[in-house]
Amino acid sequence: MRFDTESIKNLPEQTQEWPGRTDDLQPLPDHGETSYTGRGRLEGKRALVTGGDSGIGRATAIAFAKEGADVAIAYLPQEQDDAEETRTHIEAAGRRAVLIATDQRTEQANIELAQQAVDALGGLDILVNNAGYQMAQESLSDITDEQLRQTFETNIFAMFNLTKAVLPHLGEGASIINCSSIQAVDPSDTLLDYASTKAAINNFTVNLATQVGERGIRVNAVAPGPIWTPLQPATKPSVKDFGMNAPLGRPGQPIEVATAFVYLASDEASYVSGTVLGVTGGKPVF
Q: Residue 194 catalytic?
C-alpha cells in the first residue's frame, strides 16, 4: 500500500466554511480509494460510521467495505455531496452502503440513527464514533457558549447517546471504536474545548470497556495526530505548517488512520480492549 505523502508537505494556504468540502481541499486527501487493498478481515460484518462522509470517516468506511463489511454512514445534511461520494466507493467495493443524514446533537436523533442503521443492515457488529466538531480560538474568552455547547454535544453527548442506543443490538465479538486525538494528551492552546472532549473520550473508552467486557464486546479508541481533512482549513486560521512538527515531518493521510480502525474492528484485535491507539506521526499518546 503506497500513500501520497509528499503532496501534503508545506500545504498551500486555504480556508473553507465549516464543515468543509473534500473536493475543495488542495491537495485532495487519500482515503484509500485506490491505495488500499482489503484482505477480507471484516467479511460479513455490519458497521455504522459517524462522520462517514469525509476525512477519517470516509477512509474508514471505504476500508471497511474493502475488507468485506456493509457500511452505514451518518453525516450532517449539508454534507450530502461528500456522503454520496463515499457511497460510490463503498458500492464499488461490492458492499452495501446506507446513508443517514442527521444532526447527532440530541438524544432522539441518536436513538433514530441507531434504529435506522440496524433496520437497514439487519444488525450491527461495529460502531465507529468518529463525528466531531472543532473550532480554533485564541483564548477562552473567544469561546462562545454556542461553540462550547456544539463541541460537547457533537463530540461527547452524541457518543454517549449513540453508544447507549446501539449497545442492545451488539453481541459477543462486537467492536466499538471511538475517535480520540493527540489533543487529549498534548493539547493546542487554541483548541481548549475540543481537547477537553478528547480527553473525556479516552476515559469513556476505558470505562465502557470494563462495563461491557463480560458481554464479549471490545471498546477502543484511535487517537489521530494531524490528519489532512476538510476539518483543518474549515477550523484553523492557517494550514501552511500543519503537521510539520510531527516527528515524521508531515501530516497524515486519512487512510493511514483508517487502517487502525480496521485492525481494532477485526478479529485480529480479539484481545484488545480499553486501549487508545495513537496514529500521530510519532507523538506519544500516553
A: yes
Residue 182 per-residue DSSP state: G
- Measured CA to CA, the distance from residue 184 to residue 182 in angstroms comes to 5
d(CA 191, CA 183) in angstroms, rounded, equals: 8
Tell me which of 75, 194, 263, 271 is the catalytic residue. Answer: 194
Q: Does the CA dihedral 104-121-78-241 come out positive or negative?
A: positive
pLDDT (tens place) for every residue of the chain, 286 residues total? 455 566 667 777 878 777 777 877 878 889 999 999 999 999 999 999 999 999 999 999 999 999 999 999 999 999 999 999 999 999 999 999 999 999 999 999 999 999 999 999 999 999 999 999 999 999 999 999 999 999 999 999 999 999 999 999 999 999 999 999 999 999 999 999 999 999 999 999 999 999 999 999 999 999 999 998 876 665 666 777 787 889 998 999 999 999 999 999 999 999 999 999 999 999 998 7
Helices (H) and strands (E) in the chain, counts: 8, 7
Rg (CA), the chain: 17
CA distance readout (Å), 19 to 73, 79, 101, 141, 229 = 16, 8, 14, 23, 10
Alpha helix stretches (DSSP H) within 31-170: 55-66, 80-92, 107-121, 145-152, 158-166
Say how many C-beta atoms besides its own lie within 10 A of residue 226's C-beta. 22
Helix, strand, coil shares, percent, the chain, to 5:
45, 15, 40
- DSSP track, 131-160: -------SSGGG--HHHHHHHHIIIIIHHH
Q: Work out the burial of residue 270: count CB atoms within 10 Å of its CB; fewer than 13 is exposed, 13-18 middle, 19 or more buried.
A: exposed
Tell me if the pTM is above 0.85.
yes
On the question of a cis peptide bond just before residue 12, with omega within 30 degrees of 0, the verdict is no
E strand segments, 165-254:
175-179, 218-224
